[in-house]
Amino acid sequence: MAFKANNFGLFTTRQKRKSKATMSDNFNLPQDLFAEILVRLPIEDLVKSTAVCKSWNSLIKTPTFISTHLEKTISFAVKTLEERRGSAGPVRAGFANSKTALRREICAKIRRGKECMPAFPKFLIASPSFHGGRGALPSAGGHPADLTFLAGGDSGFPAKNGKFEQLVHSHSIVQGMNLPIYCFGSQSLEEDTSFEGHSCITEEESLLDVVLLSQWEDRMRKGCFRYDVTTSEIKVIPGRMKFISQLNEGETMDHLSKLEGNMLPEQNPSVFDCVKHPEELLFCIASCKKAISELVTLASLPANAILVIINVNPVEYGHVFLVPRTSNTHHQFLDARSVEIVTRVAAEINNCSFRVFYNCSKPHSSDVYFQACYFPDPLPVEFRPVDIFFSGGRRAIRICSIIDYPIKTISFHTTCDLKIMAMAISEICSHLDEKNIQYNLMISDSGKTIFLFLQRSHAASHALSTWECGGYFLFRYRYEFDQVTEDVLLKRLRSFSLDEDDFEAVKQLCCSVASKFDI
Amino acid sequence: MDSKLGLIQQSVNTRYSQWVRDALDELPDNFTITDPSISGHPIVFASRGFLKMSGYSQEEVIGQNGKIFQGPKTNRRTVMEIREAIREERGIQVNLLNYRKDGTPFWMLFHLSPIFGKEDGRVTHFVAVQVPISRKQRRNGGVSLSEDGSGLNEIVFGSCRKEVCSDSLLELGRVLSLDSGSKVLDIEETCEAGDFEKRRAASAYNTILSVLTHYSELTGRLVCGKRCSVPAAGYISSSLNISLGRIKQSFVLIDPHLPDMPIVYASDAFLKLTGYDRHDVLGCNFGVLDGVDTDPSTLHEIKESIQTEQACTVRILSYRKDKSSFWNCLHLSPVRNASGKITSVQIAYYVGVQIEEECKNQDRHGLSPEMRQLSAVGAVKVAVRSLSMGASLAGSSKS
For residue B120, what are the contacts with CB-CB under 8 A and spacing of at least 6? Predict the structure, then answer.
């Protein structure tokens, strides 16, 4: 508790701001002392402080400062969160997410302070000074095509936004790293070709599948994860739903050791810290102008890329965060581009075990991110009978409601036009956001099927994770794992489900949005 | 590709002798036979009726996966149900929309059944019988149907769900409906097979099974339609076979629970690398690759890592079947399964992934051999963790 007061409760922000203006001119405090003070400011004030004077501005924007501040804020917030939650509910696997959400919120807030910031040189990220000279830019054997997305990608960054984020990433990731980047071939990005045709015929592992599995296995060997998820037991719970449960003791053991060793969570942040844990970034996914997808090494991050970052508390093998770095201003909504690109990732991986998740239920979340992992078996929801209530003509999009499932669920299917499906889904989701309906998305079947789980608008902290919606439950303790019955889980899912009337409304919404796109 | 076609030839010939093809070709039904133990779960036999129905030639179909007949309107869920049935090694009967070579869709009753080896209880093949479902003809403007045919269809079928008593009349109607050329079918609507289709599929399956059983007597490797014996330890189920078949790296699985820790699975790439046939290495100890100049201390290292259940990477001199040697960058890793019965999680297999050192350059996609090796370990870990591995055997022992 005392720690808390030191961190933030020292002054009210108003007092601080007043004092600041004079401080910078009149006091000859050493730079590091300033940093020490500023690092304690809440993020909003920090953003404003960049406008105070040049020295503060540059100080606040140094990567070390940013990371120190992030660490402080997160450790503090996590601590409060843990105190508040205690040992909440039986299922704790979603815990990492709340930390992630926090971090994203913070990053976004820095970004939102854009108005106060002076304009940065436009292509800072590609300028030599930021990654150790031009020579380091294209890797040996790099192609001219690589440079196209360095220079702003296809759409380019809106000048007023995204700069700070760019800065954060360019500083921290670039440091001496050769970043593996998976480039989507244009062939795979074209509509109506690979998605429908040969991609389903080739039974071989795809390149992206190989890249993801190898990078994940590599991190596993290096001990980047808190536990080996393959040692946790899974079983089918008897009953007609065939729910799957996993005993994830790794989480428990970690929890205990943390208490015993008096290690604070900030020493083991479960989210990507680009400075401290560069190894948690597996690779990036970006689109390129070439026909065939390939893996290249670049010294800096292309715009509009997806960062693939490990989740150190994996729910299943291959658990990663997929963080789209788009320049979109509507961070709170799922934009069509993000949905499309992750669906393409699923299609390109072309492995029926691979699933992508999206939880909308992040409190005041600001940044869109997805999670993904390999489930060796299909999830129970995928087996439920369906009722087709919309079937598009030319686009061949089908929308079904899942019958006889405890949580209200809609599934979207397409085999040819993934872009339209992504656009439709993101529009549906933005309507759901407006109506304060909580939802989760799950992309399965190599991008051909997307499930939309509808939850009632609870307090944001209590919401089901997407895998729970799909029928995959995690337990921390053996007695819970042994004793759980289908009834308990059915009840749990039902208690979160949207009610019948709202569900009908959502179905109508889906139909109207889909028919708008289905020309 | 030649080696794969060879495997496909063998798949039929060694089990049922080469004469079985003629016998199967005599049958009027539409069906395919697939082999789950070959990577990609390819079609190893397609009947004449099937080829006629689908519009493909024999060469185009053999070696392909059944997926090639699916298209945009094929119900993904049904496809998944079939996939699950295959993984669990059980039969299934579903209505499925498939596509002909010219792209026209058609509904059919898809009846899939596994064929088991009598003595070892392994799934040797799957038989897929496909009965086209005729359906209500819609008299859309501009479609010229023979007046008689369409009239009969209207009367007899009513709807495709309607049960019909006279098989012969139905058969007549079917012939007419199939002959009536270009039809505009409302393909959206799910079409359900009636009793007639179901009976026809079941009888076709029985005929095929009896042919296969009969011809398997010629080779002495008997098959049957039901699992007669529980597979011996070290059995790799179809589901695992199919999952592992996707992995294009050279690797083997070793079962540490069996005496002498034999190889229970060897990938195609492994066989290509070492020159062995699959039946040469299955059941052998991993030491099959060792030779005179193999360093005993490296072997000791491998043994130790197995005892301590640790992964290890070594560089070891290995020998092919023709006694030529190569430097082998071997990675050995424990792989755990998901079976919930045992208190401590059991290690199911060891995966050994080989890379020949001479060909250690990057491939055209920018992947290093190390990455390929790691990805193989990852893919095996996911595959072995599947719950359906145990499910098929548990199911069969119950029934």
Answer: B229, B231, B232, B235
